[in-house]
Design a protein that fits this description.
Bound molecules: nicotinamide-adenine-dinucleotide, zinc ion
Structural class: alpha/beta
Largest sheet: 7 strands, mixed
CATH architecture of the largest domain: Up-down Bundle
CATH topology of the largest domain: Dehydroquinate synthase-like, alpha domain
CATH superfamily of the largest domain: Dehydroquinate synthase-like - alpha domain
CATH class of the largest domain: Mainly Alpha
């Protein structure tokens, strides 16, 4: 039986379906149901499947299932990695859509991690003023985070995710068995975002992860179902109330990301520090900022750090240049009027946006992060 999360966005609402193992009749039925909800989808006969080479075997099975259900399908596999989320990568997809004679009734099916979802999603958003997008996120990070919420983007050589759009999918299909082939390091990165959801919104989820570290790392389906479904539900709840990052609520999802993005940028995207690891470092640093502001006691940062360590995530980035991290932070597009804004915990499950962090305080915490 599939676990359902509804992302309630009026006429752009959609279902996230979660299964331990795909049954293709169920997938096709869900796909058709979701297509029927949109004008362009109702007459869809063509599906462009976008994936990367690592995930291609998983994607091919879905493409075959669609072909056997009389959809004309084409599959395009980009190179794995952040490098594909580029203007060149986007051109490639636009070219493939033209070759396929795609029109507004062609659905884009993104099968892969966050890179594929963001890239295929942006191609879908920009081609013919918007094609229906269906997502099958295959990395844990994509399942708990990037496939929920409708943000799609590619990178500019000078700025990550700067060329983007809001383009909600018509449906999301999550198959937990896909995680079996995911490299363990990527699994741990996805768990960092789960920890984030716990800290910002849900102490029970945080405690569940604390108690089930070994089960989660061993891909126990019950433990995974709980954390993936809860994460989707929590993120969907935020997105529903602030779809376009206008009321400020969606900003709470940036906990751990102010420091995280900066250390990730300085380490080099696609380099030594994948996003989830950078977020773990960021969450520990930002929890420490909250402690030094007197917002939380020592227990909270200690628990966040201990959980990250138990999950095999780094909590420091020794050797990074403090100056570069500071510069990266002030360039972050989320700042207003030159002040670094943070999302900091008030207690487990509650965070608040603040620009009260002084330069001295920030420097002293960052010094600990980068100390060799
Ligand atoms: N749109 C959003 O709201 C949002 C949110 C968070 C992150 N993101 C973006 O997501 C991207 C990171 O996503 P990611 O961590 O999934 O990276 P990714 O897509 O690069 O996937 C990580 C690696 O795992 C491989 N992989 C994925 N699924 C696999 C599977 N089932 N089996 C084997 N290998 C598999 C991929 O080929 C890749 O090599 C970043 O570009 C980030 O900006 C977007
Ligand atoms: Zn993130």
């Amino acid at each position: 039986m599939n676990n359902l999360v509804t992302v309630d966005l009026g006429d752009r609402s959609y279902e996230i379906r979660l299964t331990a193992q795909t049954r293709f009749e169920e997938f096709l039925a869900a796909f058709r149901t979701d297509l029927r909800r949109t004008w362009a989808g109702r007459s869809c006969r063509k599906v462009m499947v976008v994936t990367d080479r690592m995930v291609e075997p998983l994607a091919r099975v879905f493409a075959d299932a669609l072909a056997s259900a009389d959809f004309e399908t084409r599959l395009i596999a980009v190179e794995p990695g952040e490098g594909s989320k580029s203007r060149e990568g986007l051109n490639c997809l636009h070219d493939a859509l033209i070759d396929f004679r795609a029109d507004r009734h062609t659905t884009v099916l993104a099968v892969g991690g966050g890179v594929v979802g963001d890239l295929a999603g942006f191609a879908a958003a920009t081609y013919a003023r918007g094609l229906p997008l269906f997502m099958i996120p295959t990395s844990l990070l994509a399942q708990v985070d990037s496939a929920v919420g409708g943000k799609v983007a590619i990178n500019h050589p000078k700025a990550k995710n700067i060329l983007g759009a809001f383009h909600q999918p018509i449906g999301v299909w999550i198959d937990l068995s896909h995680l079996r082939s995911l490299p363990p390091r990527q699994l741990r990165c996805g768990l960092a975002e789960v920890v984030k959801h716990g800290v910002i919104l849900d102490p029970d989820l945080f405690e569940f992860v604390e108690r089930h570290v070994a089960d989660l790392l061993a891909l126990d389906p019950h433990a995974l179902t709980r954390v993936v479904a809860d994460s989707c539900r929590l993120k969907a709840g935020v997105v529903t109330r602030d779809e376009r990052e206008e009321t400020g609520l969606r900003a709470i999802l940036n906990f751990g990301h102010t420091v995280g993005h900066a250390v990730e940028a300085v380490a080099g995207y696609g380099g030594d520090l994948p996003h989830g690891e950078a977020v773990a470092i960021g969450m520990v640093a930002e929890a420490e900022l909250a402690r030094r502001l007197g917002w939380v006691g020592p227990d909270l940062p200690a628990r966040v750090a201990a959980l990250c360590v138990a999950l095999g995530l780094p909590i420091r980035a020794p050797g990074l240049s403090l100056d570069l991290v500071r510069t990266a932070m002030t360039l972050d597009k989320k700042n207003q009027a030159g002040r670094v804004r943070f999302v900091l915990p008030r207690r487990l499950g509650l965070v608040e946006v603040t620009d009260e962090v002084s330069d001295d305080l920030l420097n002293s915490v960052l010094e600990e992060v980068v100390r060799p």
